[in-house]
Amino acid sequence: MKIGKKLKSLRIMKNMTQEELAVRSDLTRGFISQLERDLTSPTLENLDMILHALGTDLKEFFSKFDSVEKIVYKKEDRIPIYDTPKGVKEELLMTATDPKKIEPSFLYLKPMSKTKEENYHEGIEFGYVIEGNIMLYLDGISYKVKEEESFFFTSNKKHFIKNTSKKNCAKVLWIEIF
């Protein structure tokens, strides 16, 4: 079983150099390099130390070994959010972000509808108005965001959006990053 490519991928995802991984796992940079090129095999103890330094363990590493990374998410893959206010339809665009630090969704707002007000939380938020015009409310201050414009803010403010049109719907791509 060749594990080098997966180890290298995990190391790069963690923004670690081979030297940093070697220091954290009490091994040499040369050994890490050989492992990543599948020129040598680790002992179970060495692999466990490497995986620990990468923030995972043997069970998780091998349980995801044969899994295929999902690249394209189709419309039928979307997950509807049911606890939205009247006139608002929200769907999660992706269901399995790993590590789960991003939550992209598509919002459809009927005329004069608004999302629920969210309280302060960690993270940042990005939105892009695909169609229509909305008002973005951040701690009581309103911002007009027009079609093809975007917004970006830290989530440490109470926030919601409203479609202020009396006859047109609004479509918004909303991405929360935790």
Automatic annotation (TrEMBL):
One term under GO cellular component: cytosol
Classification via CDD domains: cupin_XRE_C (cd02209), HTH_XRE (cd00093)
Ranges for domain HTH cro/C1-type: 7-61
Keyword annotations of the record: DNA-binding
Keyword Aminoacyl-tRNA synthetase attributed: no
Entry GO MF terms: DNA binding; DNA-binding transcription factor activity
PROSITE patterns, alphabetized: HTH_CROC1 (PS50943)
Transmembrane domains' residue ranges: none
Keyword DNA-binding part of the UniProt annotation: yes
Gene3D superfamilies: Jelly Rolls, lambda repressor-like DNA-binding domains
Record protein name field: HTH cro/C1-type domain-containing protein
Organism: Tepiditoga spiralis
